Amino acid sequence: MELSSVQNAKLSPKVLLKWAIVALIVLVNLYADVMMYMNGDIAYPILDLVLVGVGVYVFMNKKMYAQRYAFPSVAGMTAFIIFPLVYTLWISFTNYSGAHVMTVEAAMNYHLQKTYKSEGGDYAYKVFTTDNGEHELLLTQGDKAFKLEQAVNLNDPKLLAKAQEGKLIDANLVATNPSDVKGKLVPMKQLMSLKNVLKSYVLHLPDSSIKLSMSGLRQFSAQSEKYKRLQQGEVVDGYEVDSKYALWDNETKQLFLPNMETGFYQYADNKGVLHGEEYAPGFKVNIGFKNYIKFLSNESIRMPFLQIFVWTVCFSAITVFGTLAIGLVLACLVQWEFLRFRGVYRVFLILPYAVPSFISILVFKGLFNQNFGELNMFLNTIMGPIYGAFGLEWSSIEWFTSPWPARAMILMVNAWLGYPYMMILCMGLLKSIPDDLYEATAIEGATPWINLRHITLPLLIKPLAPLLIASFAFNFNNFVLIQLLTGGGPDIIEATQAPAGYTDLLVSFTYRIAFEGGKGNDYGLAAAVAAMIFVMVGLLSLVQLRLTKNSQMQG
Questions:
Q1: In this structure, what CATH number is given to the domain that contains residue 175?
Q2: Which domain holds residue 221?
Q3: Using an 8 Å Cβ cutoff, are 92 and 528 in contact?
Q4: What angle is formed at CA 551 by the lines to CA 548 and CA 555, rounded to 5 degrees?
Q5: Phi and psi at residue 335, in whole multiples of 5°?
Q6: Reduced to 3 states, what is the DSSP secondary structure of residue 490?
């Protein structure tokens, strides 16, 4: 009886349901991993297998009960922080770019699909519709004529599906007399709708190895495979093949080998020496530290990077301390007991924080328009007569095309967007300061400036320190502001190897290298720059934390 009760407990509906759910989760993830792997992806299937495997072990093992609460956060940190960092670091050691997206296997298969016109000539063709709705295909070359061995319906959904998937359809031809082909000639307009299906046909001539495929709107041509794959160890033209991706050009009778340093296929001589043009598509290869060397040694990349780094630090620091100063002053004013309608002022001053930032940025973009913006119109109206009185000429400020005005505009807009947050923080912290301190200094005749220096700021700086560091980190990576307002411009002319602008932050600079490069999206170089940014920001954060800790210890 005791053994039976244990077995019933193990096979209870609750246990069976739990194992069924686990099995379903595992099967779904395994299917997804297999599909990703078949598409050439390796990193994500490995990550998914590790997380799912560990998750199943943690949640199904009673000894790991305590770890169940920590696993979701650890899994999230692994998937969204550690893995992206490791993956970015791996990309930085490759030539991954817009021109090098494929694997070498995919590039080889792409070349293997190429054909060329071989001996056999061109064949004109016509399509006829028979009485039963099928189609006859007639090919002629001089006095020779061929038709399909069996008439087909080119509108058949199965044929259309194969053509859409890029699958080839083999069909045999038989000799015929043009007068024997019956039916109504398909007009050109209708023939255009059958073009995709006809392109998928590979026609075999009788008693011949010649294959015909569509080479024009009105003709089929003898096509042969341009490349064939060579086996390792095979000797061709005196060259012993040492690469499993080697190809032989049937048309030019030359070796066609992958260059594992540049990521392109090239022709080679009988000694395997590569030469001549590089043939797209490119493929990904490991290039070691070349991206880092290019970044550090190339002046047109290093110079704008250092310039943008200095601007990013200055932008973040000025924004943090500027918004803090504005927010603190406004917080003190709206809490002044002698100020009437304080509640109304608070509402209006906090409104910029309630409006979505991208809407405010777009509004400011219109206000700062160099030709039609209200700000320039106002300045022209005021400053024009003043300059004219001194015999000078006032010109509109070029907010988007001149470096320093563009940076000033960025700082002003960001101050508008950031001061409400600082004001709210300061309003809450000011409430925590005892009124007795101000009453005591009032008896001694202290001025508001003395109260600010010796009471307000010392009592606010400690609780504000971590929030200021967080604000600094946010503004260090304030991509939305730069992208929507200036797009990083005006561009730095000296930056010829990587797109860079005077208002770019490091994050937008990296984005532009990855997605806006003139020679293709250079993901490898962008990953190397991102890795360097990570190191520099990490060191900067350590310095900030150390300074904050020292100031708290001294306090």
A1: 2.40.430.10
A2: 115-225
A3: yes
A4: 140
A5: -105, 5
A6: coil
With tokens 């991206």, the residue in question is 291
Q: Tokens 């989760």 map to which residue?
A: 25
- As a whole number of angstroms, the distance between CA 136 and CA 102 comes to 41
For residue 537, is it within any domain?
A: yes
Average pLDDT, the chain: 87
The Cα–Cα gap between 224 and 212 comes to 9
Q: Are residues 178 and 64 in the same domain?
A: no
pTM for the full predicted model: 0.74
Helices (H), 335-373: 342-354, 357-367
**Residue 190 and residue 82 share a domain:** no
Give residue 232's Cα distance to chain centre.
37
Q: Is 267 helix (H, G, I), strand (E, B) or coil?
A: strand
Query: 126-173, pLDDT tens digit by residue?
Result: 999 988 889 999 999 888 899 999 899 998 888 888 888 878 888 999
What sections of 272-373 are H helices per DSSP? Answer: 290-297, 299-334, 342-354, 357-367
Residue 317, domain member (yes or no) = yes
- Total tally of structural domains belonging to the chain: 3
% of residues, the chain, pLDDT over 90: 39
Please indicate, yes or no, whether residues 87 and 181 belong to a single structural domain of this protein: no
Query: Residues with Cβ < 8 Å from 134, sequence gap 6 or more?
Result: 151, 152, 153
Distance of CA 67 to the CA centre of its chain: 34
Q: Helices 43-60 and 13-38, interaxial angle, to 10°?
A: 170
Confidence at residue 518, expressed as pLDDT on a 0 to 100 scale: 58
Residues 431 and 354 in one domain: yes
Q: What angle do CA 157, 162, 164 make, to 5 degrees?
A: 90
Residue 455 lies in a domain: yes
CA 387 to chain CA centroid, Å, is 49
* Token couple for 227: 């490349």
Cα–Cα distance for residue pair 303/497, rounded to 1 Å: 11
Which CATH number is 307's domain given?
A: 1.10.3720.10
Residues 72 and 193 placed together within one structural domain of the fold: no
Alpha carbon distance 201, 190 (integer Å): 18
